[in-house]
Design brief:
CATH superfamily of the largest domain: P-loop containing nucleotide triphosphate hydrolases
Bound molecules: adenosine-5'-diphosphate, magnesium ion
Order of helices and strands: HHEEHEHEHEHHEHEHEHHHHHHHHHH
Number of domains: 4
Strand order of the largest sheet: 5-6-7-4-8
Shape: globular
Largest sheet: 5 strands, parallel
Helix content: 40-55%
Strand content: 5-15%
Distance between the termini: 53 Å
CATH class of the largest domain: Alpha Beta
Structural class: alpha/beta
CATH architecture of the largest domain: 3-Layer(aba) Sandwich
CATH topology of the largest domain: Rossmann fold
Radius of gyration: 24 Å
Number of helices: 19
Number of strands: 8
Length: 451
């Protein structure tokens, strides 16, 4: 299957390049097609496309050959708006996709880490600040004495704040110290799927798999919401483990009381032990994280640039890490040290002082012109894609350049409802960070506004 073939290629590449390189270039890639003659790989942007063509092609070719695939050509095509991290090796293991082309290639077994732990997540490389020190201490306490204190340990907080990192660190610490302790890390989705499969195919051993462990770590518990039968099964698993003093560690995006449709008895079980939230680290901690990550990939980055990044990205650590990796990779590619200007270019967050003469009308007119549309089309209700994105960009620029309120932005575009304006601005804000094409369009357009 193409998934496992590509996972296998990624697996080899991951050990041969730096972590930053891997995360930057290979994270959002996907094998789209594999015919006998050609292999097509989707990459997230044109930077990446170029990198693959000039830098990684030979390596990929030879790994494919080792796996019995000998295409006469490998094509790299840009596919934007992919689900982020969709090919991260931790997340796709359970999502095979088969196409006719896939079946031409015999499945290749990748090394399966049976306990689900990724050795990359350790306590040592977790930076502690006031937003996460409680969670960190609780995790350390549990790692020292599993099953005795804080059972279950329930960690909750928004995406990309380090929940997975911490709960995996517990597992890694325990298995390193005592290899005989059985640890199992799963996402609650895996539990759900496993359970459904055991029913559908009348498979035996489901219960044992989860009950014969010393430490059960379940990530992203919120996915169990609304799945009553699975919740019931988990309830029994929980009881079996808890009664024999086995440790249970759970993460979720919200506290037990806020997970919708969680059965009352499971909710109360979750609240038996310790629930701790984890928040976005403050500026100082964000800087420390960036410095630690740069040091870990032996890259040099000056304090000013670190502060610039820490100041620009306040959403979550994953984004912060992503921006740093992009910056380091870009600097490596260009052969010049990373600096604020480069970071600004990449983040597309150049804060200029607003010249007096720029008006809403000019922004709309110039955006329309840039995309070869008329201002009337931008302000119309048409939903064609080639108009919608420029319209959203116009709204984004009204916000970023003129700091207009959302109702005002809506009004300028001839709309009554300002929620569309909020949505559009947020969408482009995000796209500017993630999508190199949008970033370039916006940067180019900004230049035009100020000439
Ligand atoms: P969550 O599970 O909460 O969505 P993750 O644990 O996946 O978040 O964290 C996202 C990324 O940020 C990971 O690569 C993780 O290693 C990193 N990270 C998060 N918090 C920290 C921290 N305090 N120190 C170092 N790295 C961190
Ligand atoms: Mg997570």
């Amino acid at each position: 299957m193409s998934q496992s073939l590509w996972q296998s290629v990624l697996g080899e590449i991951e050990v041969s390049v730096s972590h930053a390189t891997f995360m930057t270039w290979f994270k959002n890639t996907e094998l789209l097609e594999n015919t006998n003659d050609s292999v097509t790989i989707a990459v997230p942007n044109i930077f990446a496309q170029r990198q693959f063509e000039v830098k990684f092609n030979d390596q990929i070719k030879s790994i494919l050959e080792k796996n019995g695939v000998t295409p006469s050509s490998i094509n790299y095509i840009v596919k934007t708006n992919q689900k982020r991290q969709s090919t991260s090796r931790e997340t796709t293991r359970s999502a095979p996709i088969t196409s006719a082309a896939d079946r031409l290639v015999a499945p290749i077994k990748t090394k399966v880490i049976t306990n689900g732990l990724n050795p990359r997540y350790t306590f040592k490389n977790f930076i502690v600040g006031s937003s996460n020190d409680l969670a960190y201490s609780a995790c350390q306490a549990v790692a020292k004495n599993p099953g005795s204190k804080y059972n279950p340990l329930f960690l909750y907080g928004g995406v990309g704040l380090g929940k997975t990192h911490l709960i995996q660190a517990v597992g890694n610490e325990i298995t390193t110290r005592d290899p005989d302790t059985t640890v199992l890390y799963i996402s609650s989705e895996t539990f759900v799927n496993d359970f459904l499969e055991s029913i559908r195919f009348k498979k035996k051993g489901f219960a044992d798999k989860y009950r014969n462990v010393d430490v059960l770590i379940v990530d992203d518990m919120q996915f169990i919401a609304g799945k009553e039968k699975t919740q019931e099964e988990f309830f029994h698993t929980f009881n079996a483990l808890h009664q024999t003093n086995k440790q249970i560690i759970i993460s979720s995006d919200k506290p037990p009381r806020n997970i919708p449709t969680l059965t009352e008895r499971l909710r109360s079980r979750f609240e038996w032990g310790m629930s701790i939230d984890i928040q976005m680290p403050d500026f100082e901690t964000r800087c420390a994280i960036l410095e630690a990550k740069a040091a870990a990939s032996s890259a040099e980055i000056d304090r000013a640039t670190v502060e610039y990044l820490a100041n620009s990205i306040k959403t979550n650590i994953r984004e912060l890490e992503g921006a740093l990796n992009q910056l380091l990779a870009y600097s490596e590619m260009r052969g010049v040290p990373a600096d604020i200007a480069m970071a600004e270019g990449l983040i597309g967050n150049v804060r200029r002082t607003r010249p007096q003469h720029l008006t809403s009308k000019q922004i709309i007119d110039r955006t329309a012109k840039h995309f070869q549309l008329t201002s009337a089309e931008i302000c119309s209700a048409k939903r064609d894609k080639h108009i919608v994105t420029p319209r959203q960009i116009a709204m984004y620029l009204l916000r970023s350049e003129l700091h207009l309120s959302f109702p005002k932005i809506a009004q300028e575009l001839g709309r009554k409802d300002h929620t569309t304006a909020i949505h559009s601005v947020e969408k482009i804000e995000k796209a500017v960070k993630l999508d190199v094409l949008i970033r370039e369009q916006v940067a180019e357009l900004r230049e035009k506004l100020y000439v």
